[in-house]
Design goal:
The complex is a heterodimer of chains A (385) and B (796). Chain A is α+β, with helices and mostly antiparallel strands and 385 residues long. Chain A is built from 8 helices and 23 strands. Chain A has 3 domains: 130 residues, Beta-Lactamase (2-Layer Sandwich); 103 residues, Mu homology domain, subdomain B (Immunoglobulin-like, Sandwich), CATH 2.60.40; 77 residues, Mu homology domain, subdomain B (Immunoglobulin-like). In chain A, the strands form 7 sheets. A 5-stranded antiparallel β-sheet of chain A has the order 2-1-5-4-3, sandwiched between helices. In chain A, strands 8-9-16-13 form a 4-stranded antiparallel β-sheet, with helices on one face. In chain A, strand 8 and strand 9 form a beta hairpin. Chain B is mainly alpha-helical. Among the domains of chain B are: 167 residues, Leucine-rich Repeat Variant (Alpha Horseshoe); 95 residues, no CATH class; 28 residues, no CATH class; 117 residues, 2-Layer Sandwich (TATA-Binding Protein). In chain B, helix 25 runs parallel beside helix 27. The N and C termini of chain B lie far apart (90 Å). Classes of the chains: A alpha+beta (385), B mainly alpha (796). Chains A and B meet through strand 4, helix 2, helix 4, strand 7 and helix 6 of A and helix 2, helix 6, helix 9, helix 12 and helix 14 of B. Chain A: Its main location: membrane. Chain A: It is found in: Endomembrane system; Golgi apparatus. Chain A: Keywords: Golgi apparatus, Membrane, Protein transport, Transport.
Chain lengths: 385, 796
């Protein structure tokens, strides 16, 4: 149940924060960890798994905005508990600092240590709720101006796996007061969906799945109760049957395969009128996660055509078609395509008249990127490389 | 923390500074003191004074912080100053201070156990745990007590009892009924405790499951997994409910996989992987969830591929293989290789082989080195299992130029096929000849071994064409610096000299198709990993003793989990106590089948096909491996610690047939052991001996029901505690006790009536007399015949 050390390393392996709770792990664990992660060679994998063991010490890490959050222990603990905890520590620190990066860490290290002392005592987790922590924490965060941040690439959300959208709310500290001393009563509710669709080469949909989160970030004072009404025709599939059976039985309405809720959510009236009631704790938290495999119309259609143009050259034509109503506009879209390791060069040709589009070949991870600022419905966009 | 600058020189000034009333400043001082006190034990004495004063401050925050800093100093000679503030901290009316005091007690215990015990802190913690109104205080008490009593239990009986009392029904229900008051982390703690609780009856089980059902909808994966573990362990003895549990937990786990960061999904997926491998049929319809997405990290993809192979069955093989074939062209080469291997594994599972073989052969036409290499290895394995496909495969394989293959494994596979199917491949001798000519450039010993064997096989089929090449190969082989290559070449040479026909029988006997490839992980290890569900064991896919040292084994160190061998308490002791156990019969039978296969074909990929004579030696090695594995496993839990070498020595001594006659062992005829104790011991003790002996066929004939053997063994003071199985495999658990002292011998005996063989595994309290007991046991078993003979004759 307990962890021995917690530390945060920068991408270059610099020690940003380090706390030893139980003094069981020999010195130098940060270097051991970093070397292992950077030069991971085992079983042909390029990436180190989030959990590994070196000389009886178990290292857990999660990557959050390029920083390594690491915990070590000698005990055979529950892996998901530690990984969940690391993720949660990152979230708490972000709630306080507003922005997570090396700079904000360094400027606020006393506050971060103060937080770490309250979150974990002697290796045992005490609390990770920003709400509870607020009464124990006395340092004021030094806010790093979000303007100095690089804009977060929306595509990075999915490649990082985290489901967080950039918005004005996200970079504001939960505890710090706005300059001018006034505090705005605000609550942000984001619905973030990750839609995975596989198209066959002829354009048919092979698999489709939606993983969604309703995320809240509350700046409300006095903890009022909030009610969140969902679609009334929402159904939740109950165990037993295969999720793929629903296709035949589905009439109208949205059918979720399964969902889970944050611990503050009360489900008293959920069965009757699909309403969630909750007293939102301070900070950012997911209200509900859900998953569905019901058939739906994907927002985009992707068409590709690959032609080998000679021995060492291939031509790819990518077309995407937006399929949503014309009053909706999609912003900041990125199309990525992994290329073989031996690709040395890529050239692009955009459709004539394409504005606000950018193409790029990322040498380091052999990735072809195509950024579109805006996509209005029913327009086909073409690109060849 | 100070950007690497050592600021310990200002320690004195900092101590002065901490007299401030500003809490922010004070906290910084505490932080400083906590960091540097260990390096300055003399100076820390200074801090004690003000920390003690702060422990009496009006502000509970300051009281708490001071107490925490005081306990975190980790300076042994200052412990006397801790007891007073801790005592009052535990009685403080503010819950924040109490929470810190409870953890403080644990810190004190780690600095000086005797001070902690002498102050009677554990008892105080216990009453706090049962009566405090604050959930976090209660949770900290629980974790502190668990740690203290686990460490104490090794030398104090009282601590042992106290530790057991945590698992009593009232305590467990006290926690479970209030579980919603605790935060998510404390919930995990409680659930981990509940796993070890042994419910009294099935109502008890259902009560707990009802209490915890809604925990499965929690957004925190750790809570859900801990709940899943409780459910799985509770229902182990109820097969049908156990199945329902699988159904129930499937959906929440799949949601968790897709809702967290890749790291979190990895942890959840590893657990799903374990469940999928255990019960593939339950997940067979959900195979699409295991399809890989292009942006997933490779460690997630790898798990998913393994799960896809596990769930493949008649109905979904086609789709899965189609999907896997897409991955084979993946830009990520490691994943592409993995997926080809996955296709091969599915083919070996016997579903829809026809289509898969076609697919594999298409891979060969893709003309990518790594695809070809992986595929060749698979085709070789497939041919061993399905010789009927040789015609199709060989025609394609024959078209591959050996020059394009560099990887040793693939090269070895190709060479094996050249040797095996020399008569079907017109240019086989010439290809081999070419390869042999480049003997010097061949760096892999494995390839050279295969070359030798292939040359031999080819020679038996097409002697005139191969003779020259074989001569070159043998000459080169005998001159080889690698010991194995040299030995094999010499052996072939001498066998050929002796008699060509004998050589042919040795090197190239008529082969039977392999029906089942041996599983690499023994089922015992798999069961152990399952027992340690929701721990790192699942991630590493090995039990905890293989990667942790004994003092850090955590919750599994002293736990007596309910294992896979479910023994129900016996009702009457007069009648032969033989219980049937149903849930595991299948497992058991499978286990034996695998072992038989193992003996027959040998699981060694490399040299095995050509050297059936190795059989017995590989058997010995496997025995030794078993011993070696079980050795460190349980040595931590046995009271008498014995060296690893000892164990190994024992293992070796079983191998040669003539053993020195051991001293006679007297067994207690009225020995008694209750099933629970047996189970616990069986888990704790290492396997002292594994042996195989044959049973007289006449005895086998009498063994139509297990009772006959049980009665017989009882007459030799060896008592049966459980038995099961049906013809041809019977499994018995026996125990015996020494006449004079309460030293137990536990035995697992698996009798296969068709092969008339018995496999015996002995575990003993006392290692020294183990051999003697085994002899007694075997003698008793061998006498089974005559007795039943009498028995039979009496009947007529």
């Amino acid at each position: 149940m307990m962890i021995s050390q917690f530390f945060v390393l920068s991408q270059r392996g610099d020690n940003i924060v380090f706390r030893d709770y139980r003094a069981e792990v020999p010195k130098g664990s940060t270097e051991t960890f970093f070397r292992k992660v950077k030069f991971w060679k085992e079983d042909g994998n390029a990436e180190a798994p989030p959990i590994f063991n070196v000389d009886g010490v178990n290292y857990f890490h999660v990557k959050v905005v390029g920083l390594y959050f690491v915990a070590t222990t000698r005990v055979n603990v529950s892996p998901s508990l530690v990984l969940e905890l690391l993720q949660r520590i990152a979230r708490v620190i972000k709630d306080y600092l507003g922005v997570l990066n090396e700079d904000s860490f360094r400027k606020n290290f006393v506050l971060v240590y103060e937080l770490l002392d309250e979150v974990i005592d002697f290796g045992y987790v005490q609390t990770t709720s920003t709400e509870v922590l607020k009464s124990y924490i006395f340092n004021e965060p030094i806010v790093v101006s979000p303007a100095r941040l690089q804009p977060i690439d929306p595509a990075a959300i999915f490649t990082q796996g985290a489901k967080r959208m950039p918005g004005t709310a996200v970079t504001k500290s939960v505890v710090a007061n706005d300059p001018g001393g006034r505090r705005r009563e605000e609550i942000f509710v984001d619905i973030i969906e990750k839609i995975s669709v596989t198209f066959s080469s002829s354009g048919y949909i092979l698999t489709s799945e939606i993983d969604g989160t309703i995320q809240m970030k509350s700046y409300l004072s006095g903890n009022p109760e909030i009610r969140l009404a969902l679609n009334e025709d929402l159904n939740i599939g109950r165990g037993g049957r295969s999720v793929y059976d629903y296709r035949s039985s589905s009439g109208s309405g949205v059918i979720l395969d399964d969902c889970n809720f944050h611990e503050s959510v009360r489900l008293d009236s959920f069965d009757s009128d699909r309403t969630l009631s909750l007293v939102p704790p301070d900070g950012e938290f997911p209200v509900m996660n859900y998953r569905m495999t019901q058939e739906f119309k994907p927002p985009f259609h992707v068409n590709t055509l690959i032609e080998e143009a000679g021995r060492l050259k291939a031509e790819v034509i990518i077309k995407i078609r937006a399929e949503f109503p014309s009053d909706i506009i999609a912003n900041t879209i990125t199309v990525q395509m992994p290329l073989p390791n031996y690709t040395s060069r890529a050239s692009f040709e955009l459709e004539p008249g394409a504005a606000g589009q950018r193409t790029d070949f990322k040498e380091s991870n052999k990735m072809l990127e195509w950024n579109l600022k805006k996509v209005i419905s029913q327009r086909k966009q073409g690109q060849s490389a | 923390m100070t950007i690497g600058i050592d600021v310990s020189s200002v320690f004195g000034e900092m101590v002065m500074c901490s007299a401030t009333s500003d809490i922010v400043l004070k906290k910084m001082c505490y932080l400083y003191v906590g960091n540097y006190a260990k390096g300055n034990p003399d100076l820390s004495l200074l801090t004690i004074n003000f920390l003690q004063r702060d422990c009496k401050d009006e502000d509970p925050m300051i009281r708490g912080l001071a107490l925490r800093s005081l306990c975190s100093l980790r300076v042994p000679n200052l412990v006397e100053y801790l007891v007073g503030p801790l005592g009052s901290g535990l009685k403080d009316n503010n819950s924040y201070v109490r929470t810190i005091a409870v953890t403080g007690v644990l810190k004190l215990y780690h600095i000086s156990p005797s001070t902690c015990i002498d102050a009677d802190f554990p008892a105080t913690l216990k009453s706090l745990m049962l009566h405090d109104s604050d959930a976090q205080v209660v949770a900290n008490c629980l974790s502190a007590l668990q740690e203290i009593w686990s460490l104490e239990a090794s030398h104090s009986e009282e601590a042992c009892r106290e530790k057991e009392s945590l698992l009593s029904k009232p305590v467990i229900y006290y926690f479970l009924n209030r579980i919603k008051e605790f935060n998510e982390w404390a919930q995990c703690l409680i659930l981990e405790l509940a796993v070890k609780y042994v419910p009294s009856d099935s109502n008890d089980i259902f009560d707990i499951m009802n209490l915890l059902e809604d925990r499965l909808q929690h957004a925190n994966g750790a809570v859900v997994l801990a709940t899943v573990k409780v459910f799985l362990q509770l229902t182990l003895s109820m097969t049908d409910v156990h199945q329902q549990v699988y159904e129930r937990i499937k959906s929440p786990l799949l949601t968790l996989v897709s809702s967290g960061s890749p790291e979190q999904s990895y942890a959840i997926l590893s657990h799903l992987h374990l469940l999928v491998v255990r019960a593939p049929f339950i997940f067979a319809a959900d195979y699409k969830h295991f399809y890989c997405q292009y942006n997933e990290p490779s460690y997630v993809k790898k798990l998913k591929l393994e799960m896809l192979t596990a769930v493949a069955n008649e109905s979904n093989t086609y789709e899965i293989v189609t999907e896997l074939c897409e991955y084979a062209a993946n830009v990520d080469i490691a994943i592409a290789r993995e997926s080809i291997r996955a296709v091969g594994k599915i083919a070996l599972q016997q579903y829809d082989v026809n289509a898969i073989v076609d697919r594999l052969l298409q891979f060969l036409e893709m003309e990518k080195d790594y695809v070809t290499a992986e595929t060749l290895v698979l085709v070789k394995d497939l041919l061993r299992k399905y010789p009927q496909w040789s015609h199709d495969c060989i025609s394609v394989v024959g078209g591959i130029s050996s020059k394009n293959i560099q990887e040793p494994k693939a090269k070895a596979a190709l060479i094996w096929m050249l040797g095996e199917y020399a008569q079907d491949m017109s240019d086989a001798p010439y290809v081999l000849e070419n390869l042999i000519e480049n003997w010097e450039e061949e760096h892999s010993a494995e390839v050279r071994l295969h070359l030798l064997t292939a040359a031999m096989k080819c020679f038996f089929k097409r002697a005139p064409e191969t003779q020259k090449a074989l001569g070159t190969a043998l000459a080169a082989g005998i001159a080889d610096f690698h010991q194995d290559v040299h030995d094999r070449a010499l052996f072939y040479y001498r066998v050929l000299q002796y008699d060509v026909h004998v050589a042919e029988r040795v090197v190239s006997p008529p082969k039977q198709a392999v029906s089942v490839f041996a599983d690499t992980q023994s089922s015992e290890i798999k069961d152990r990993v399952f027992d340690e569900f929701n721990s790192l064991s699942v991630i590493y896919q090995k039990p905890s003793y293989m990667f942790t040292d004994k003092e850090h084994r955590g919750p599994f160190e002293f736990s007596d989990e309910v294992g896979n061998i479910s023994i129900t308490p016996e009702a009457s002791s007069d009648i032969v106590p033989a219980q049937q156990y149903e849930a595991n019969d299948k497992d058991l039978l499978l286990g034996i089948d695998e072992k038989d296969e193992n003996k027959g074909v040998s699981n060694n990929n490399g040299s095995a096909y050509t050297a059936p004579s190795l059989e017995s030696s590989s058997n010995i090695t496997s025995q030794m491996q078993e011993l070696a594995i079980s050795g460190p496993a349980t040595s931590a839990t046995t009271p008498q610690s014995f060296g690893f070498d000892d164990l190994f020595g024992l293992g070796l001594s079983t191998a040669p047939a003539p053993t020195p006659s051991p001293p006679l062992l007297k067994l207690n005829a009225r020995a008694a052991l209750d099933p629970g104790a047996f189970q616990q011991k069986w888990r704790q003790l290492p396997i002292s001996l594994t042996q195989e002996c044959s049973v007289n066929p006449q005895g086998i004939a009498a063994l139509t029901v297990p009772q006959s053997l049980i009665k017989h063994m009882q007459s030799h003071s060896i008592h049966c505690i459980a038995s099961g199985g049906q013809s041809p495999n019977f499994k018995f658990f026996f125990f015996a006790q020494k006449e004079s002292e309460p030293s137990n011998y536990l035995t697992e005996c698996i009798i296969n009536t068709s092969s008339a063989k018995a496999q015996i595994k002995v575990k003993a309290d006392e290692q020294s007399t183990c051999q003697a007991f085994t002899t007694v046991f075997e003698t008793a078993l061998s006498k089974f015949v005559s007795l039943t003979f009498d028995f039979v004759s009496l009947c007529y």
